[in-house]
Description:
Elements: E1 19-30, E2 37-48, E3 52-56, H1 63-70, E4 78-83, E5 86-87, H2 93-103, E6 104-108, H3 119-130, H4 136-146, H5 161-174, E7 179-183, H6 191-206, E8 212-215, H7 219-222, E9 227-232, E10 235-241, H8 245-261
Parallel strand pairs: 3-8, 3-9, 6-7, 7-8
Antiparallel strand pairs: 1-2, 1-4, 4-5, 9-10
Helix pairs in contact: 3-5, 4-5, 5-6
Amino acid sequence: xxxxxxxxxxxxxxxxxxxxxxxxxxxxxxxxxxxxxxxxxxxxxxxxxxxxxxxxxxxxxxxxxxxxxxxxxxxxxxxxxxxxxxxxxxxxxxxxxxxxxxxxxxxxxxxxxxxxxxxxxxxxxxxxxxxxxxxxxxxxxxxxxxxxxxxxxxxxxxxxxxxxxxxxxxxxxxxxxxxxxxxxxxxxxxxxxxxxxxxxxxxxxxxxxxxxxxxxxxxxxxxxxxxxxxxxxxxxxxxxxxxxxxxxxxxxxxxxxxxxxx
Length: 262
């Protein structure tokens, strides 16, 4: 792994043309009447190609809901959600499944590796299920970037937590998706393992040209991103380019202050 696997670097690669995903006046409402909850309130945001974006906000702010709606894991109540030029609302279950398989990668806090398969088998599993052969040149590039070439034949129980999460990230990258959504990917890791995973995500953007959108509550994790967007009460309230941990922490403290004075 490069130095980026240990500490965030300061010079993001230029963004590629166009948006990998975008929301326009996107709203998500749960329940009706007295139980009605507005999780997202007319959110508009773009996620540029070849960029790493972190989403932050207080508990209940809508950050995970936004990611789930953009990834096609949850339906939207109003507005628009697009991956590339494909509008998600109105897609049949079959077409939505195909889009998630071909254009979207997922990384979650739980590693979700199959214990009976070794690392390389876990990485290629989604393509094996779909009956597709991996692009061998791309797969080898991902494996070199992950830095676990000598551990590919090891099962999850023989890998550390950080190594398992890096396998999970490699699995998300292996099919060359247009965008990768990561929900608290370092939440179960110690600081060193978390830094390695974040460095790998950063490398996947800057060296492999992928797009990453990550939900996190950790200012240090957010500092690996090219920008941070902040949500509160289902709305985007602020944006921070080229974030530092100190800047992110200061902004999060302002949320706490606003909550106490509101």
